[in-house]
Design brief:
Elements (H helix, E strand, L loop, with lengths): L13 H12 L1 H13 L2 E2 H8 L3 H13 L3 E3 L10 E4 L14 H27 L19 H18 L25 E3 L2 E3 L2
Antiparallel strand pairs: 1-3, 2-3, 4-5
Helix pairs in contact: 1-5, 3-4
Length: about 200
């Protein structure tokens, strides 16, 4: 299984999505997930040392992350009170904001703002570290006309490419590095530009 091809997500209720968004927006839980993603595994003691927290605090947040299936226990390393964890394959697509309950929308909005901050830093890094078309850092931009059906087909093809070329940490070949990829697509604002219609 590739890193871009996790177990198909189960349908979440509005309350479950709200809890998920709040959890992902929690600063310490985000740091725990980041550590597990980068280092593969850890227990509460390791995380406490690395993140500057108490083991009781990291243990509590690990349990909460496990409840939401964002991390999973490593049975072969766990025993007694010592439990080792790794990030779990996870995929989630937020629903139409217009269908969200107020509390869910507020939680999703807060998480989105945090993601924008992270992505802005990543965007700057990509430009700063760009070393030509054969380097590790890549920046691509495009502006084309598409129908909605073509756009959705493009997104599916993008996801298929991630599944084709991406690897899990365990299956990555020698020389592989963890890559941070982002995909955005937004139509021009509805209106006219130089006499030509834009938007849907």
């Amino acid at each position: 299984m590739s890193a871009a091809d996790p177990t198909p997500p189960t349908e979440l209720t509005s309350l479950e999505r709200t809890a998920l968004y709040k959890s992902l927006a929690n600063p310490l839980r985000r740091r725990i997930l980041d550590y597990l993603t980068r280092h593969g595994e850890a227990n509460s003691t390791v995380l406490a040392r690395e993140l500057g927290e108490s083991s009781g605090t990291t243990s509590y947040h690990l349990r909460k992350l496990a409840e939401q299936r964002l991390i999973e226990e490593i049975p072969e390393k766990s025993g007694g009170r010592e439990r080792w964890w790794r990030a779990a394959p996870f995929a989630h697509t937020a629903p139409d904001p217009a269908t969200m309950a107020p509390e869910e929308y507020a939680a999703a909005e807060r998480l989105a703002l945090l993601k924008i901050e992270t992505d802005t830093r990543l965007f700057r890094r990509a430009h700063e570290e760009y070393a030509g078309p054969e380097g590790w850092a890549q920046v691509q931009r495009a502006g084309v006309w598409m129908t909605k059906e073509e756009l959705l087909a493009f997104v599916r093809a993008y996801q298929e490419l991630l599944a084709r070329y991406g690897h899990t940490r365990e299956d990555a070949p020698q020389g592989a590095r963890r890559m941070n990829l982002r995909f955005y697509a937004a139509p021009d604002a509805v209106g006219e530009w130089r006499g030509e219609p834009t938007g849907p």
